Structure formats: C-alpha cells, structure tokens
Structure to design on (410 residues):
C-alpha cells in the first residue's frame, strides 16, 4: 500500500497555515507519498466517519498564499475516555499512515504526543512532527525566533493601529485598544511599538508588582496626563488581553466580565469586549479627576488571524513545511520543526520543553528587561515621571499616583 502522511490543524487560525500545508504537500508528493488532510482538528481522529481529503499539487498551489486554513480547525481536546472508546485506529492502519503532522500551538502539540503514544501502544507506531503556530508568539523557540503568523498579524495590526491613531489625532480624543494575546504581550507590544503608541500595557510589565485594574487604569491616565502637560489632547493606549489571565478572581469580578471557557480550560476572551471595560473604568477615573478626555474602545483580534501572510511568513512557512520532510527523513519524531537564525532545520524535542507534570509547554513572555523593549519604553512611551509632578499638579492633586515607575515598582 502507498505510504501516507496525515496533516491536522488545531487551535485558532494564523496567517501561513495554508503555506505550511501546501509546502508539506508539494514536498511529500514529490517523494511519492500520499498526503491526507483531516477536517475538524483532533475531533476527526475520534469519529467513525472522519472528513478526510487527499491533497494534491493543484490544491496546494491554489492555497499556499491564502489566509485562513483550508483544513477546518477546532480546539477539541480528547478525554481519556475518548481514547479508550472513540479513537479511529483503523483510519491510520487502512491508510498506511506513517507520519502525523500537526499545525498549532502548545495544546495541539501536547495532544499530538498523546496520539502518538496511543498508536505505539496499539502496535501502529508512527512519527509525529509539530509545526509551531500562533500569532501570540509565545512558544519558547530558541534565540527569540518568532512563531509563524506573528509577523503577518503584527503587520496588519500595525496598519489598523496606525489608522486608529490618526483618527485620535483628527478627532482630538483617545482610543483604548485591546489586542489579542492569551498569556504574553508580544503582539500588543509589537503593534503598539510599530504605531508609536504613547502607552502599551502588557502582563510582563508587572514583573515586580501584582496586576490590578487600578494599576492598568492609572498607567493609561499617566499617558493622558503627560500629553496634557505637552499640550496634546489625543492619543491611544494599547493593552494586551493577556492581563486578564493574571488578574485575581476578585479583580475579574470587579471588571464585570463573566468568562466562558474552551476545551483546554482557557477563558474565551474573544467573546467579550475588554476594551469597552477599560474605557468605562478610565472614563470613570477621569470624571473623578474632573479631566475632560473622551475615549473610545477598539478590539484587535479576529481581524488579524485570517489575513493573507506577508512575505516574511510566506518564506518562513515554506521553509517549515519543507523542514518537516527533512526531520522525518532523518528519523525524528515527537518534536517541533525549528528554523534557526542561519536557516538550518532542527528538531525541538517536545519532551525537553514540556512540563513533565502537565504536558504543557510553558509560554514565552516578552523579555521586558531587554534593550529592545526598554528602548521603546524609555523613548516612545509618554508617562508621568517625578520631574513632571509640578506641571501635573495643574490637572491632578496627587501626580505620584500616576508615576509610571512607582505604579510598576520599577
């Protein structure tokens, strides 16, 4: 029987998924492999009637530069009972599948390992190779290499953020933008820095103090006050949605947001407008201070996930797709494909980066103390410092409360 590989996409979309899938397809077809794709993420592996498609060159050539994912995705997480009762082992046996390729984030990688272990225990050992995908850029790739999709999402986010900033200048008001990023602030900081926002708030900034709503609000007001001193009545604040993951239950209750949770136990932040909550809290604070500043909320998230990949990701994802074959041909399994800064393809063994107790891959946060980040904070951000106190007292009686360094205990 002809040898086959199976490609599965899990989690949420990111620019470049189709490029990865198309590059894998073209490469393996040329090596006389049958390339199969499965719709529905891992849910398809636990179905009696999985929706499988055979991928050929013409299909691959038609999707390689498209956004979204040709293979339907899901966040389905199989239970132990699913493995015992619902796993479709005959699908792997009957199609002579030798390699499972998963495209996704840490949850997808962890589940792929479970699948490979199950198949090995049932006398059908296969290789499994993971392609790291997330616009959050929070998988721990060496040398701060980005996860694919991040650069495209940042590019589109910067375009939108720049337009929003121009609206603020034109209308002489403020916007508060909340950007996607579950547990790290890479996307929010990258977008905000590209658009020269005077204030960006990400969870990593609170490395020396607890995150609270009051601190987030005071950081926002600090930037507004600094610009008032400078005679500027407009601006934008960028906030990473990841701050919600670090808020205590008491703080979440104060925010008024009631979250639902996905199959992996993550709060479904996309269902609520975090920016709206922040605008309400900032305007309440400004009213208490008798400062007349208008602000408007904007969410940046779903707009970024399915855009066509930029040139960086088109090349990067092509290299990753071809790299899968290289690792497979060398006998690698249970690993992520990694392209280093010199363009060399290397395996990152999942066992080496996963938490041995939970099987989860710890997220990579923003290196807040790095020169790259501190340069933006110290030269692009605008906020109240001790030297601003005399002028700030024209607007607030207690400027110390809005001192950027004191708020963060830096």
């Amino acid at each position: 029987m002809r040898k086959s590989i199976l490609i599965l996409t899990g989690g949420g979309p990111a620019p470049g998924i189709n490029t990865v899938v198309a590059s894998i397809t073209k490469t393996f077809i040329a090596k006389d492999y049958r390339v199969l794709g499965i719709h529905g993420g891992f849910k398809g592996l636990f179905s009696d009637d999985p929706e499988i498609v055979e991928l050929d060159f013409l299909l691959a050539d038609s999707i390689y530069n498209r956004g979204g994912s040709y293979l339907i995705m899901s966040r389905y997480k199989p239970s132990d009972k699913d493995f015992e009762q619902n796993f479709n082992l005959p699908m792997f046996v009957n199609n002579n599948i030798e390699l499972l390729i998963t495209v996704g984030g840490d949850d997808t990688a962890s589940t792929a390992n479970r699948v490979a272990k199950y198949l090995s225990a049932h006398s059908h050992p296969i290789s499994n190779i993971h392609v790291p995908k997330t616009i959050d850029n929070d998988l721990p790739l060496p040398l701060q290499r980005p996860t694919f999709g991040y650069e495209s999402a940042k590019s589109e986010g910067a375009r939108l953020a720049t337009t929003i900033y121009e609206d603020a200048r034109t209308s002489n008001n403020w916007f508060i933008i909340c950007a996607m990023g579950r547990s790290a602030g890479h996307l929010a900081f990258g977008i905000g820095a590209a658009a020269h926002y005077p204030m960006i708030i990400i969870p990593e900034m609170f490395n020396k103090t607890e995150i609270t709503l009051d601190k987030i609000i005071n950081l926002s007001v600090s930037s507004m006050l600094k610009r008032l001193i400078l005679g500027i009545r407009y601006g934008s604040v960028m906030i990473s949605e990841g701050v919600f993951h670090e808020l205590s239950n008491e703080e979440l209750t104060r925010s008024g947001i009631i979250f639902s949770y996905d199959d992996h136990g993550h709060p479904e932040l996309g269902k609520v407008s975090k920016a709206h909550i922040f605008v309400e809290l900032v305007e309440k604070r400004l009213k208490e201070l008798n400062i007349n500043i208008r602000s408007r909320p904007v969410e940046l998230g779903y707009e970024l996930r399915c855009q066509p990949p930029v040139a960086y990701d088109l090349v990067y994802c092509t290299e990753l797709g071809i790299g899968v074959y290289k690792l497979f041909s060398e006998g690698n399994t249970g690993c992520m494909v990694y392209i280093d800064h010199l363009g060399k393809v290397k395996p990152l063994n999942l066992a080496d980066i996963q938490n041995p107790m939970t099987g989860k891959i710890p997220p990579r946060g923003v290196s807040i103390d790095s020169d790259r980040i501190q340069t933006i904070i110290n030269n692009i951000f605008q906020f109240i410092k001790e030297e601003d106190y005399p002028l700030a007292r024209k607007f607030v009686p207690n400027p110390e409360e809005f001192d950027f360094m004191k708020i963060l205990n830096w």
